[in-house]
Amino acid sequence: MKKSHLSISGYIHLMIILLLLLEAGWLYSLYHAERRDFRYVTGKFIEDAIKEEIHTCPIQETNGLDDFSMKGRLIMTYTYKGKYFHIDTNSQLFLVFYRRKLYDFNRESWNIDSLAAWFRHFCPWEDLNPVFIRQDTTGKIIDRYPADCRTPYRQPDFAQFQLGNLEPDTLTAWFDFPFNRFWLRQRYGLLLSIVPFLFALSFGLLILRREKRRQRNHLLTEKQLIFIHDLKTPFCTSCHIEQHLLQHVGEWPAEKIHEKLNVCRHLLAAITDEMTQLIDRSAGYWGTNPETAGFDLRSMLEEVAARYGGRGDASRIAVDYRLDTPIVQGDSFHLSHIIGNLIDNALRHAGPEANVTVICDADRRGRLRLTVEDNGTGIPRRLHRRIFRPGFRSVPTGDNHGIGLAYIRNTARRIGARLRLDSRPGHGSRFILTFTPGQKHRSRKIHLSPRFYSCFIVAIMFAALFWTGNLYIADRRAFVNEELPNLDEAIFKNNTSSFKWREDTNCFCNDFEAKTITVTHNGQDTTLAMGTQVNQSHIYQRLSYDLRDTTNWSIDSLLSAYRKYSANRLPVVFRRIDAAGRTTDRAGTEQQALFLPVECSLPLGYVEGHRLEVQLAYPWLRLFSRYGFGLFLALAGLSVTIRFNRIATDMARRQQAFIRFQREEVQLFIRSLQPRLRDIRYPQTADPEILGETLDRNIGIYRELLGQINLLLEKFKTIEWE
Q1: Which end of the chain has fewer CB within 10 Å, C or N?
Q2: What CATH number is attached to the domain comprising 329?
Q3: Residue 551 scores a pLDDT above 60
Q4: Is the pTM for the entire model greater than 0.70?
Q5: Quick check: is 488 in a domain?
Q6: Which of 451, 431, 325, 340 is nearest to 384 (CA)?
Q7: Is residue 388 within 8 Å of 329, Cβ to Cβ?
Q8: Do residues 33 and 478 touch, judged by C-beta distance below 8 A?
Q9: Distance in angstroms (rounded) separating the CA atoms of residues 568 and 617
Q10: For the CA atoms of the chain, what is the radius of gyration?
Q11: Three-class SS of residue 76?
């Protein structure tokens, strides 16, 4: 698998940001859908107010031809005040041109304040404050409501509506979308959608919180592995010295033998102290940040140089300390490992006559700088970046595992330092470590159980599912609101087309204040409630069903009229239900069930109590046409989130393997190391027999430990590196 450039914490942060963007996108789409539906419904209220104002204004007398006929087509001709109008068009536009004709006749008495009053009568939202402006063909404002209002500097919410045929004045309206309506209509959906969103956000924050605790274990694992890797150098040095002593045990004087043995004792004591320190710190759960304290940098550098300077060859290690004070603030534990590894690499690659210099100074900005330079063969420029990769080996030897420099770079980042290489072939190498005061490194290694990522993704998908459901419900409601006027027009057309007046009905009377209708049948008055039908045209539509003979009322003709008025060509089902709830007739799709049906019920009459049950197939493709870009971004975001989940889960699996390796292999080796180190003895006597037996036993222990270290590092190489 290709290595990712982001850590798990980076992926989690990206997924949380993506989740917030998705929530914002869904909320905007839902708000936009509700706002569009509100504008459509409010526009219908304005059109109803226009109809009422046109019908209630007194009509002026005509002074010319006034005639129209409908024989499959509408032919309307009239003359008013010397202006002639003629139209020959589709008969379904009869009501439109008829209302415009009425406006031409009563234009002088048409009042925009009365129009606003009618709008208040129809509109249920009392806190809505619309702005109406009527203009003539030249754009001149005829009147406005309120009278002292200014023209808003934005697109109108109700586009210019043509009022007349001969006088094509236009009406434009502006109104604000009430946010409380959005909350009242979508509060349950919003609350249900917020729940999985909060779950997803909580899971993401929980992951980031738990990784801080688990990071301490990961940091401990790295320290232990660094310690085990660093054991190779003192073990090899001691083994080399003791092998050399074993070969010359009878030839060298006692002083030289004790000098070499003291070097081995010093290395063993340093290993023991360092291991004790590591174990003590491991038991204390230090946390994710490196320890910062004051320490003697000069003494630490000299101690590290002395540790690696007793190899018995012609190599030389020097410390050039150029600072004024030896005390600095930092993490001495990690810094000693960094310098030790750099010295060890320089000695290994520069040859038996290596000259290594550790320079401690400050750069131009006053930052602490440590430089380890040697007189080796140098490193080609093409390898400058690759040399810091885990597992990279310039020389494929069995003892070189290519782990040291990778750990050096990662450890340097952790303590707030930057490591860079300056080397040319034939001129040696310089590893420069520069510290930035106050810089804190954020670790990139995080390991968590994969189930947390799965729960996180599931919560995100549930949130997206709920938002999609809310958007779907809102668009279904908008679809019904768009089709209801077409159904009303079809019912009105069907009621007034070819039926005779009922002989038993004499008259009817409307009372808008009491919202009642009184119908007289055979001299007996019956008072019925208007209900929600407050528009006169809607009331007349229902009364026309009661006042006419409906025995020959055809639902097939109603369906045909609906197809003329509506652009919807999907399957529909119409059923006429009587007062007892029985289906009297039916039209529409008979064989197949409708896909995603939308149901609505419209009353047909007051007295008869009949109603029309309508089932419309919901055009779900309009979701993509209206909200295609938002849905595309949402689906793309979900796919990217799922991809992030796969990557994060795989990274967590590999890190769990690293943790198991630490628990099963590293801890076992460290526990077995202490008793093995106690078995190493250095006698005070220079007796060749006793000294040879002791050195031979020590060499065997060193070789055994080196073999275990090499085996452990080989196992570590099989684990995919993060």
Answers
A1: N
A2: 3.30.565.10
A3: yes
A4: no
A5: yes
A6: 431
A7: no
A8: yes
A9: 9
A10: 45
A11: strand
User: Residue 672 falls within a domain, yes or no?
Assistant: no
Number of domains in the chain: 2
pLDDT value for 132: 92
Q: Are residues 591 and 516 in the same domain?
A: yes
Question: Residue 598 corresponds to which tokens in the numbers above?
Answer: 């939308």
Distances (CA, A) of 453 to 113, 200, 316, 638, 715: 62, 10, 53, 14, 28
In this prediction, residues 474-496 reach a mean pLDDT of 81
Clarify whether residues 340 and 482 are in a common domain.
no
Output the CA–CA distances (angstroms, integers) from residue 80 to 53, 64, 168, in the order listed. 20, 6, 14
Per-residue model confidence as pLDDT tens digits over 605-661 = 777 778 889 988 888 888 777 777 767 766 776 776 777 677 667 766 776 777 677
3-state SS, one letter per residue, for 333-381:
HHHHHHHHHHHHHHHHHHCCCCEEEEEEEECCCCCEEEEEECCCCCCCH
Beta-bridge partner residues of 613: 575, 601
In this structure, the answer to whether residues 484 and 607 fall within a common structural domain is: yes
> 172, 135 in Cβ contact below 8 A?
yes
Distances (CA, A) of 61 to 50, 104, 538: 21, 11, 28
Query: Which ranges of 143-296 does DSSP label H, i.e. alpha helix?
Result: 179-230, 232-247, 254-283
704 vs 537, more confident: 704
The reply to whether 486 and 418 lie within a common domain is: no
pLDDT on residue 371: 92
Whether 526 and 613 map to the same domain: the answer is yes
Most confident range (mean pLDDT) of 294-303, 309-318, 686-695 is 294-303
Residues 495, 433, single domain; the answer is no
Give φ, ψ of 183 to 5 degrees.
-70, -45
Token pair in block for residue 130: 């619309």
Rounded mean pLDDT, 653-677: 71
Tell me if 118 sits within 8 A of 171, measured CB to CB: no
Cα–Cα distance for residue pair 21/249, rounded to 1 Å: 76
Domain hosting residue 610, numbered range: 477-623
Residue 692 pLDDT more than 70? yes
| CA distance readout (Å), 653 to 9, 491, 533, 648 | 15, 66, 65, 9
On the 0-12 / 13-18 / 19+ scale of CB atoms within 10 A, 557 is: middle
495 & 597 share domain: yes
- Using CA atoms, how far residue 177 sits from 50, 126, 174, 712, in Å, is 21, 13, 10, 69
Residue with tokens 């600072």: 323
Give a yes or no: residue 224 inside a domain. no
Short-list 669, 688, 580, 686, CA closest to 227 = 669
Q: Is 425 part of a structural domain of the chain?
A: yes
DSSP state of 513: T
Q: How far apart are CA 175 and CA 157, in angstroms?
A: 6
Q: Report the length, in residues, of the chain.
A: 722
98, amino acid identity: Y
Q: Strand 83-90 to strand 73-80: parallel, antiparallel, or no bridges (unpaired)?
A: antiparallel
Picking from 605, 623, 641, the residue at the C-terminal end of a domain is 623
Domain endpoint, select from 595, 623, 651: 623
Cα separation of 223 and 217, whole Å? Answer: 10
Q: Are 74 and 93 in contact (CB under 8 A)?
A: yes
Alpha-carbon torsion 651, 653, 656, 657, what sign?
A: negative
Burial (CB count within 10 angstroms: exposed 0-12, middle 13-18, buried 19+), residue 285: exposed
Query: Does 420 share its domain with 512?
Result: no
Residue owning tokens 């798990």: 8
